[in-house]
Amino acid sequence: MDLTQLLLSGAGGAIIGPLVSQFLGGKSQSMLTRIIAGVVGGVGAGAGADASGISAQLSSMLGDAQTMQMIQSLIEGGVGGGVLSTLAGMMKKKA
Prior knowledge:
The protein has four helices and no strands. It is mainly α. The radius of gyration is 13 Å and the shape is elongated. The protein has a domain at 65-89.
């Protein structure tokens, strides 16, 4: 995993993460907290998918073109960021 994929995963988490959190009930946190959680979750999900081999399987489905790999990194980051942002929002609600 190179730096470009990490940056795209972080960007996907920062953009898609707070949106997913907003729709799934993690509204009690501030937007800055949701963005930070999205970036951390996005980078973590991207690195985890690469380490586990899921990225290679997705690359074979999406294709090996550079544009498709960028989209894949954004989606992986968005999913990880959305999960972590939602959990961060729900933690404050429960506590």
